[in-house]
Design a protein that fits this description.
The chain has helices spanning 6-137, 144-159, 167-174. With 175 residues, the protein is mostly helical. Helix 1 packs across helix 2 (144-159).
Length: 175
Amino acid sequence: MLDFSVTLIITVINIAILFFILKALLFKPVTKFMDDRAKRVQDSIDQSEKDKAEAKALLTRYEAQLETADTEADGIIRKAREQARIEAERIIADSRVSAGTVLANAQKQIENEHQAAVAKFRKEAASLVVEAAGRLLGREIKSEDSRQYAELLLQEISSEAPGGNTAEASRFKQT
């Protein structure tokens, strides 16, 4: 049957010794290496989860800041538009005032030129009336009183309404 020889026992003893030597020299360092590696992997996983949580928190914070920035930008744009509208209304109002002033000055200048032209016309008309009266009478009228009287008559005639009579106009007709 089975024959157990001394070689078998020596081989079993050699295998046991080899096992303990290898265990001491090889298994402990390999096990330690594997444990260290497992620890590093676990630390990396923990760190990546921590980084992921931080990234999520940063993302939330940045999204909130972006929302705030959008709201602020809308407010700034709205405020700028309101200021632009107010400035445009002010410029338009200033332009209207300026145009009104220019128009009033132009009307005043036209009125002054009109009155100057009427005054010049009256002087010339008075001269012509005096000259015509002198020719009618057959002599030259040179006195300043006659010229002033002619100017007064022209002034009264121009201020009368058409068809109206004043006392001076009737006195003129009598003379």
